[in-house]
Amino acid sequence: KKESYDGTHGFVYGGNWVVPDKQFADIDPALLTKIRGADITGLKRMFCLFLLVLAVHALADYFHRLTLEIASQRTMYSLRMALFKHLQSLSVSLFNRTPIGKLVTRVTNDIEAINSMLSTVAVQMLASAGMFIGSLIIVLYINWKLTLVSLAVLPFCVVITIVFRLIVRKVHRELRRILAKINGVLTEEFSGIKMIQSFNQQKRRREEFAEVNASYYKAGFKNVICMGVFGPILDLIRHFGTALIILYGGICVLDGDLTLGSLMAFITYFGHLCNPLMQISNQITQLQSSLAASERIFTLLDTKNEVAQPELPVIVGKPQGEIEFKNVDFSYIENEQVLKDVSFKIEPGKS
How many other C-beta atoms are found inside a 10 Å radius of the C-beta of residue 58? Predict the structure, then answer.
């Protein structure tokens, strides 16, 4: 205000004291503090408010993570118990044709993959979607024409993401299948290590494991190649979109339809618009791994018992305590007989 004018620096105009930049440093600091006291008080308030927001954010983030982890761990606990109980009820034939290591993989590795999806991927994808929608609203507010130009690259991103998802899902199915096979080989190896050493079969078993391990390496390498190609392609499309914004936005600035500050703000928010797409693309890999694991788990849960035990067994006639087999053939797998033309009779009281 003009009441603060010191009569030396600057001049009074429209009831205000106007000071050129060159003379600003020569004004008494005490006078500046007095004049700008309200501004300094406002800065202090903003600083305290910022600290309060940070504290609330940290507290909310803590409870968010805690709640999410508790929910996911309880879900995994229930799923493990349900799968374990279901395995106990299945026919022996399943365990005869399925390596134990594969079943162990279902209860451990595959369920942990689902845990990763529940505790991390799903929440991050929702956050990325929210960021994308919020940024889109802001850029539309700044300049809707420029927004339409920048979104011209969006269909390419969508098509590439869909193709990538299909390829990666196939790769992760293969990874899960081979991982289960590796665990099966390891379980058989270490449970029968005495027999393997007794018959000097270490070399043959190493060769078998090397073959399975090489398959897992190749499948993992395919996944690395997919990620190595997909990420740079999306990044290239994003930079192309930025170039379109600079070209069209620059023309608008020269024509006076857009300010330079609005163009810079638009470029910044366009980055926020693309970052969620990049994050979602990175999360697709984890999501596909979790989906492949869930498919294998629920396929196992849907397996029916081939020899169902009745809830209320009915005894027909009077038991005599005598068992007789007459020319019995039996196999778990077709053409691989366990019993062939077996006959015997056990009298009451005998074994």
Answer: 9
